[in-house]
Amino acid sequence: MFAAVILILIFSTSAFVQSGRRTKPAAPPAPPPETKPSPSPSPSPSLSSNAQVTAEKDQDYRCTSDGTLAHLLDHGNVEGFTPKEVDTKAEITSKPDPTYTREARRMGIQGVVTLKVLLLPDGKLDRVRVVRKLPFGLTENAIFAACRIKFKPAIKAGQKVPQWATLEYAFRIANSSIFGP
């Protein structure tokens, strides 16, 4: 009987030791990498193309006819008079409001974007310089709003001249207070 118990113990011990040694089935071979053709740029930009350029402080941008921003790399002195140097200051006749971005509203971002714009004698904007920025697309939306302003050009010595002007765009979330609801 003692021999039978020893045989059972040896058999059961070897069965438990063997139970953890299962062979895993071989993984199927990976398919060869698929080459996808690169998408060609579309001739007309989509609505999300406005967010392609991220506006940075002390950088110049130009409004384009397709509704996007162009980052200007020339940082030299750009000709334009200050409001004190002209006989008649440029008069802004229409200043559209910028829109709030969904991200900025969700994050509760408030503040003021300050821009310097060069108003040309022909009634167009030459460039927009970021003086003070806000995150989450608010600066870019302020620039897009500045691109749509209408103005009467500045006059010096009887001639229309380019003039720098400072624009401020305030972003405030309605019904918010620093003292609570």
Description:
The protein has 181 residues and is α+β, with helices and mostly antiparallel strands. It has helices spanning 2-19, 102-107, 138-146, and strands spanning 60-63, 69-72, 91-94, 111-119, 125-132, 150-152, 154-156, 159-161, 163-171. The protein has a domain at 57-171: TolA/TonB C-terminal domain (2-Layer Sandwich), CATH 3.30.2420.10. The strands form 3 sheets. The protein has a 5-stranded antiparallel β-sheet, with helices on one face. Strand 1 (60-63) and strand 2 form a beta hairpin. The longest helix is centred in the first third of the chain and has 18 residues, at 2-19. 19% of the residues are buried. Mean pLDDT is 78; it is low at 35-51.
In short:
The protein has 181 residues and is an alpha+beta fold.
Secondary-structure blueprint:
Layout: H1 2-19, E1 60-63, E2 69-72, E3 91-94, H2 102-107, E4 111-119, E5 125-132, H3 138-146, E6 150-152, E7 154-156, E8 159-161, E9 163-171
Antiparallel strand pairs: 1-2, 1-5, 3-6, 4-5, 4-9, 7-8
CATH architecture name of the domain at 57-171? 2-Layer Sandwich
CATH superfamily of the domain at 57-171: TonB
What share of residues is helical?
10-25%
- Give the helix tally: 3
**Residue share in β-strands:** 25-35%
The overall strand count is: 9
Question: What are the segments in which pLDDT stays under 50 over at least 5 consecutive residues?
Answer: 35-51
Read across the widest sheet, the strand sequence of neighbours is 2-1-5-4-9
User: What order do the helices and strands follow?
Assistant: HEEEHEEHEEEE
The whole-angstrom Rg is 33 Å
Main beta-sheet annotation:
5 strands, antiparallel
- Ends: how far apart? 86 Å
Mean pLDDT: 78
Provide the CATH topology of the domain at 57-171: TolA/TonB C-terminal domain
Tell me, what's the shape?
Answer: rod-shaped
**Structural class designation:** alpha+beta
